[in-house]
């Protein structure tokens, strides 16, 4: 089956820049995947998100090479309105992307822009609110909502357009740890229950790492790793170079490994670490 995202040798220079923001990017994503994209500030994560939804190069000058295909559409040659029905985007700051006063109007906005008939709009609003689990917020004013609730409204507005892919650019950066876990769980549900392909850009990978099968790392405009979080977090040099957040339990087991007392897979979560530690102590006790 044709991959849902296929980035081929993509290079992009912002106007007047001599240094490419992205260089020689090759990335293939199958429909239904949930992958993380991480890397330090300035690595090119947002630029890649903008290339996927066609804002680059359609609304942002600059020079590009290679191509970006989403659901068989070349994003540089496809009108953004057509792409909006295929790929949805959610950004860091919910305030900056919400335009309406009331939740249901926010969801209606994108649908009206795509000239969806009124009855269908009603159905889609109800459906999207239910998918995201915020039906009770339908008539609420956006101003009264918490940051996490606003971000859910932004996700529901994207989902209402029935995209096959959702790209989220650091959607939890303004949220506390509880809000972060909630949003990640919601995205997992949208992926699992509705088959939406998710590309989640995130610097806080401690929360994400145990929940993601695949993590792509960008640095200075290039992909420097594409593997499972466990494989990536095992590479001490790479994580140091990228300044990646290593979960404390993983850091502890790295130390045990360096000391030669642990040889198994690195745990990414506390429960996993506790289990491994139990096994390790049992093993040590049986030897003494
Ligand atoms: N509008 C712009 N004009 C010129 N250069 C830009 C523009 N936006 C980003 N850049 C540059 O492109 C490179 C990649 O930036 P980008 O925002 O994609 O990185 P990022 O990984 O998303 O970083 P952050 O985590 O800080 O959002 C950086 O060197 C940045 O300075």
UniProtKB/TrEMBL annotation:
How would you classify this enzyme at the top EC level? hydrolase
- Give the residue range of the signal peptide: none
Which Gene Ontology molecular-function terms are recorded?
ATP binding; ATP hydrolysis activity; ATPase-coupled transmembrane transporter activity
Q: Where in the cell is it found?
A: Cell membrane
Q: Which residues form a coiled coil?
A: none
The ABC transporter domain sits at: 5-245
Q: Give the EC number(s) listed in the UniProt record.
A: 3.6.3.-
Q: Name one GO cellular component term.
A: ATP-binding cassette (ABC) transporter complex
> What is its membrane topology?
Peripheral membrane protein
> Where are the membrane-spanning stretches?
none
| Keywords assigned by UniProt, alphabetized | ATP-binding, Cell membrane, Hydrolase, Membrane, Nucleotide-binding, Translocase, Transport
Q: Which CDD domains match?
A: ABC_cobalt_CbiO_domain1
Stored PANTHER family: ENERGY-COUPLING FACTOR TRANSPORTER ATP-BINDING PROTEIN ECFA1 (PTHR43553:SF24), HEAVY METAL TRANSPORTER (PTHR43553)
The entry assigns this protein to a family as follows: Belongs to the ABC transporter superfamily.
**Name of the protein:** Energy-coupling factor transporter ATP-binding protein EcfA1
Q: Which gene holds the coding sequence for this protein?
A: ecfA1_1
